[in-house]
Amino acid sequence: MELHTDERLSATTSSCPSSQTDGASVSHLLPKDVQQQIARHPCYSKQAHQYARMHLPVAPACNIQCNYCNRKYDCSNESRPGVVSHLVDPHGALKQFRAIKKRAPNLTVVGIAGPGDALANPKATFSALKLIRDEDPSAQLCISTNGLMLADYADALAAHGVNHLTITINTIRPEIAAQIYPWIYYDHQRLRGLEAAERLIRNQLAGLEAAAKLGMLVKVNTVLIPGINDADIAELSAAVKARGALLHNIMPLISAAEHGTYFGVTGQRGPTEAELASAREASGQFMPQMTHCQQCRADAVGTLGGGCGTEADNASKADNSFKVAVATNGEPLIKTHFGHAQQFEIYRLDPQAGEFQFLERRQVAQYCNGESACPDEEADKQAMFKAIEDCRMVLCSRIGIAPWRTLEQMGITPNVDHAFAPIDVALAAIANSQLAATTHSQKESSDEVCHY
Prior knowledge:
Number of domains: 2
CATH architecture of the largest domain: Alpha-Beta Barrel
Number of helices: 12
Largest sheet: 7 strands, mixed
Number of strands: 17
Structural class: alpha/beta
CATH topology of the largest domain: TIM Barrel
């Protein structure tokens, strides 16, 4: 079966109709072997939405400065690339992977996306990749990079089992690149202006070509910046396609001033929906488009459709799914007080499988710091409640009477019955109870005698 990429998704696992909803008039076909490789990677295939990915925040340093980037290492309230709640070393990353994988059999992809650049931190990156590969050879490994050092490390990436690679390339014109990148650090020198731009573009294209020749599936990310690089998207797309890129992901500039980026504080606006669609149409003449990117954090965990692992999705309970939030600070046991939680792991009951599937991890700011008393920080409390408002139940070791009542008013059941039990054991018990109750309810309904 050949793969058409005509719909809003550029890479799916089934044939698509001949109409192009993004406006491009060209249909792209991907070979069957490529389809098989992307079938379980949610960033490459929109049809892989049921699979989870995990970003390991092991790469803090970066070798270029982008005017749209401001890295943060202790941030829990922003959902964008370049931010994490905390950094981990490779062994800490392995520990996180083991904990998530144990409770999330749908975790198929493990990547390194910062918060700096994976290849500006080669020791940590390759150590983490090896540990994950040794732990789970079936995991699909991927990295994101700006491409400056890609040609130097392409062979090593292939040797470590990396088969999916994302390169951010915003232009192939040095005069435009100089407006996006104030400097790069290369060969022990800080380069600026056109010299920096020319070196970066040369290395990016050489690295892309090298990676593609090694068999990696390369996705190119481009940040669309109105008035700067929007007029040259077609030229860029043709150039990366010619060097072996598989997909093009054109993303809107995130330019909120509160993020502290240069473009944000100087008033550079992001693109409109029409401008974004136009850019994708121009690129779509040359290669398939990825249009479901969430522009996730560098520590995102979960399904792509579930967001970036830091904020609750805005879907209401109208989807009738049964979600459970587990208060945790990274441990495998339910031993976190509700008010002390720094994150919630979100699980959704799969009635067909008869078990909970891991969706994502949502970061929150804890509002309790003492043993028992909690200050009246209303903003933090409301943010915590909002983070789990789409759930039916929350598991924790302890919870105060005030938040208990608030959760009940929201239609969420607080549950401390499984305090200090393993999370997977507690979820299995809840799944059995919920499915049994559903079966009983359905049986009673079928046994009813209706009188007309």
